[in-house]
Amino acid sequence: AITLLVDLLEKSMRLMHPFLSFITEEIYQKLPNHKGYCITAEYPTFDEKLVDKEAFDYMSALQETIKTVRAMRATLSVPPEKKLRVVLKTNKDYAAFDYLNEEKALLESFMGASSVTLDKEDSADVEGAFPTAGIGYSAYLFIKDAFDIETEIKKLTNELEKVNASLEQSKKKLSNENFISHAKSEAIAKENAKKAEFMDKIEKINEHLAIFKSL
Fold first, then answer.
1. What is the pLDDT of residues 46-93, one digit of tens each?
2. Host domain of residue 60
3. Distance in angstroms (rounded) separating the CA atoms of residues 63 and 156
4. What's 138's domain CATH number?
5. Helix or strand (DSSP H, E) at 131
6. pLDDT digits (tens, 9 = 90+) for 11-42
7. Domain check: are 59 and 119 in the same one?
8. Which residues contact 72 (CB under 8 A, 6 or more apart)?
9. Model-level pTM?
């Protein structure tokens, strides 16, 4: 493994040398397998024999599942320290199933999950979990592990009322002819930006409320 990493680093230095000549030359000279100078070494070329299509597909599947779960955590504003149970229900012919099963510890670490269950028989209980679709699978996140649902609904409802009130104030200000006729264009543009921000926030809060109320 170390030999492979050193070989990869040596090739990387030759590959990047035209763009980072000084630092790559310095690193290249310290490598045990270097020959001469990086500047005169043969530039790396593509070698079809080194391509491992299966490994590439498996790693792509790993990255895609992690990205899907992390995106949903971000959408729901789940704090990083909160661990969720995650169930991945895959198609029966999902090629990366066994690979992901072997890498569950890695999935748990990068997903911020307390556990990851892979299921291709549609037998895992996902009642109360929030679903999100991926390529060849659906991920189910147990949001209740991170939030008290009723408390969160009350919190979002209160926040929605406040933002709605701010939006109404902004609309009232923009409909005031006295303000429009006397204010500088920058002030009007700023108020329009605030109005758009309030509307965007209301949309997101309503999305979150719909999710929490569905659990």
1. 888 888 999 999 999 999 999 999 999 998 889 999 999 999 999 999
2. 53-145
3. 32
4. 3.30.2320
5. strand 130-133
6. 999 999 999 999 999 999 999 988 899 999 99
7. yes
8. 130, 132, 139, 141
9. 0.70
